[in-house]
């Protein structure tokens, strides 16, 4: 969504007569990308669906206060990232599992959940990704799969571009090492 369209959508959202239509447009524009971003973090369809719904509820409740000092997409992406990470933390607390056990559980869903078509290298890549620390996995997903620029990722995560580049580099190295262990 371009900046000009973004301003029009925000103006329509602030008007009672066009609020619902504007929000439907926003959901239509971003829902699929947000879903797949969240899905890469939480792995299962049901969890991704629930988190995506929570994201758009938060967006709806907060959109009138959006200050426009960032792009609407990066603002929504930040909400989605935080919601997905919070979901993983809740999952850890709810099941009283260690984070390694949660990653093991996610790997189990990955293997049996139909996320990947069965292509062996894709499966290996996804398993290698689940071994990464949370921040590295996030940065890798946003850079590699979502093709976001470092400045966009910095805005979403609140991290410096230099730190993001380092995280991405480390993630790539760890993934390469993991894939070459076979």
What does this structure look like?
The protein is mainly alpha-helical and 182 residues long. It has 2 domains: 98 residues, Rna Polymerase Sigma Factor, Chain: A (Orthogonal Bundle), CATH 1.10.1740; 67 residues, Orthogonal Bundle (Arc Repressor Mutant, subunit A). 79% of the residues lie in helices and 0% in strands. It is globular.
- Whole-Å distance between the termini? 43 Å
CATH topology of the largest domain: Rna Polymerase Sigma Factor, Chain: A
CATH architecture of the largest domain: Orthogonal Bundle
Mean pLDDT: 86
Low-confidence stretches: none
Number of domains: 2
**Order of secondary-structure elements:** HHHHHHHHH
Overall CATH class of the largest domain = Mainly Alpha
Give the full name of the CATH homologous superfamily of the largest domain.
Answer: RNA polymerase sigma factor, region 2, helix turn helix motif
Envelope shape: globular
């Amino acid at each position: 969504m371009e900046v000009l369209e973004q301003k029009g959508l925000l103006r329509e959202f602030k008007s009672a007569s066009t609020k619902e239509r504007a929000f439907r447009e926003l959901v239509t524009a971003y829902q699929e990308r947000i879903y797949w971003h969240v899905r890469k973090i939480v792995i299962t369809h049901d969890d991704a669906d629930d988190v995506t719904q929570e994201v758009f509820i938060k967006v709806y409740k907060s959109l009138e206060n959006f200050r426009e000092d960032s792009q609407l997409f990066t603002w929504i992406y930040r909400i989605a990232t935080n919601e997905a990470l919070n979901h993983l933390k809740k999952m850890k607390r709810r099941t009283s599992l260690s984070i390694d056990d949660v990653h093991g559980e996610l790997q189990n869903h990955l293997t049996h959940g139909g996320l990947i078509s069965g292509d062996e290298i894709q499966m290996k890549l996804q398993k290698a990704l689940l071994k990464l620390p949370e921040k590295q996995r996030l940065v890798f997903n946003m850079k590699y799969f979502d093709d976001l620029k470092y400045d966009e990722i910095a805005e979403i995560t609140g991290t410096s571009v230099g730190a993001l580049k380092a995280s991405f580099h480390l993630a790539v190295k760890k993934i390469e090492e993991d894939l070459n262990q076979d």
